[in-house]
Amino acid sequence: MKRVILNIGDAHAVEGAATFTCFGLGSCIGLFLQDRTLDLSGGAHIMLPEDTTSSHACAGKYYNVRGAIDHLLKQFARKGSSLKSIRAKITGGANVIQSMYNVGSLNAESTLHHLTRRGVYIAATDVGGFESRTVNFNTHTGGLNITNPGRPGERTI
């Protein structure tokens, strides 16, 4: 099974079984897409809700929601995937700094908006709160395993 570590700004799609990992998601979003009919999956570690200047990559990185989603959906489309067969799981978007700007909430809202606008089915979400998360998305089982540093154990969505 392939292992894909997603650092901030990374957005990758792979064929076959894989595990996608995002470490320490605070206000960032971990987005995971899957088309089981084609055995195709993708993930992104997104830092910003919107970029007013461009949605294009900066040195191969996709820091904003629209850029990361566009990149992943283009990769899926190249492999023959239809928007109707893609399922999304979203996590992160915490208000870890507890500032008045709450970038985490803006990230979550922007991600949900861009996916639903395109007609992508949202299978599960675990967003918000005040704690960071480390997540592993197993494409074989479809499970998104989430651990928080302040809580014992792991939960799966």
TrEMBL record:
UniProt keyword list: Chemotaxis, Hydrolase
Role description: Probably deamidates glutamine residues to glutamate on methyl-accepting chemotaxis receptors (MCPs), playing an important role in chemotaxis.
UniProt keyword Hydrolase present: yes
EC number of the protein: 3.5.1.44
Name of the gene encoding the protein in the UniProt record: cheD
Pfam families to which the protein is assigned, alphabetical: CheD
Reactions this protein catalyses: L-glutaminyl-[protein] + H2O = L-glutamyl-[protein] + NH4(+)
Protein name listed in UniProt: Probable chemoreceptor glutamine deamidase CheD
PROSITE patterns: PROKAR_LIPOPROTEIN
Record-level GO BP terms: chemotaxis
MF GO annotations: protein-glutamine glutaminase activity
InterPro entries linked to this entry: CheD-like_sf, Chemorcpt_Glu_NH3ase_CheD, Cytotoxic_necrot_fac-like_cat
Record's keyword annotation contains Hydrolase: yes
UniProt family annotation: Belongs to the CheD family.
